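Dear support,

I submitted the protein below through the web form. The confirmation email said the job was done, but the results page showed an empty box. After a refresh the structure appeared. I'm attaching both so you can tell me whether what I see now is the final result or a partial one.
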Amino acid sequence: MTQPVMHRATYEDLLSIPDHLIAELIDGEIYTAPRPGSPHAHTTSVLGMVLGGPFQLGQNGPGGWRILDEPELHLGRDAFVPDVAGWRKETTPVCPNTSGTDIRPD
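What the results page shows now:
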């Protein structure tokens, strides 16, 4: 008996996921999760404030970074949505004006 051929999900499949879910494409499979609850959102907001001052704004820190909450990263065939990611301004002088980026975080 032959096994059915499994369809490897694509980014186009990812776009069909309802907006109330976070969806990621990893090794041809789609993984979904509900939007984070208030405790998670609070924690990532505080993390953004803590990192933003020294790393993005240079307040008592090195500066020179772009810190983004929940960016959509397109790395190869995969699409991830980490809680927070950062890029050095020297390697990414302009913040991409897109819903997703293929620029790997530093």
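Response: this is the final, complete result; the empty box was a page-load delay. DSSP finds two helices and six strands in the chain.
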